[in-house]
Amino acid sequence: MSELLDMEPDELRTFRQNLDLTQAELAEKLGGSRRSIEDWEAGRRQPPAMLRLALAALRFDVRPWSPITIDPRYPDRESVENAVRDRLHEVASDRAQTKFENWLGDTASLPLAEAILLGFLETATDGYNDVELRDGWDRLPKSGWRTTMVVKPALGNGLHPNVAFETRHDEHARRLAVFVDSKRPNERLPGRLRVEQALVDQGFRVMTFSGEEILADPEGCIDRITSVLYDLVDENLIAAGIISPPPRKRDEIG
Q1: Predicted pLDDT at 32
Q2: Fold of 9-59
Q3: Residue 119 has pLDDT above 90, yes or no
Q4: pTM for this predicted structure
């Protein structure tokens, strides 16, 4: 079987314009982010080879996959788990599906929203590389160009986010901590604020999702996480002199 050719920025832009789609509309049809479309068309990132197949499906009005629709108020656990399994089967490797099953583990001990988030994160990229799963935060590589992910990392001083990421380009590194709060979401509790500030002091960006957010729109939550990872990777590449910083907008004169 012949290999799929890489897609050039002009090809993607022409395809989108021929279908009379905005970047946001194409992103919605692909189940991705507008940021990804913008980066691919600008040549900042190389789109995945499978994009050609996805675009071919769109040309014939066939969606590459079906969205997961869940009512967060009345989620049926078995139905949601099966929906996520089906979605991962469409887009992820056997390893990702196995990890999802392992994370489910004892259904009483792992909240469903957290299992869904981890299952989808197994398919995540930082815009350049696939995210690598590692067993311990203290064993992360200190060189190379990669993004690594650790589930329930021990970051010291009692700091245990649900998942943490490190984007690295040799000596340049940026970090992200993600929390899932299913009990008291959106409440700015003193203890939570202290934990977040402690992570910020260690150089982390911090994101928190409620369980309802994840159940209602797991792919949207992943899109928000990967968008931050994209930014962190670009910060590393700018610091390393690989790419140039974006031009600063001139202050408007009132």
Answers
A1: 67
A2: 434 Repressor (Amino-terminal Domain) (1.10.260)
A3: no
A4: 0.67
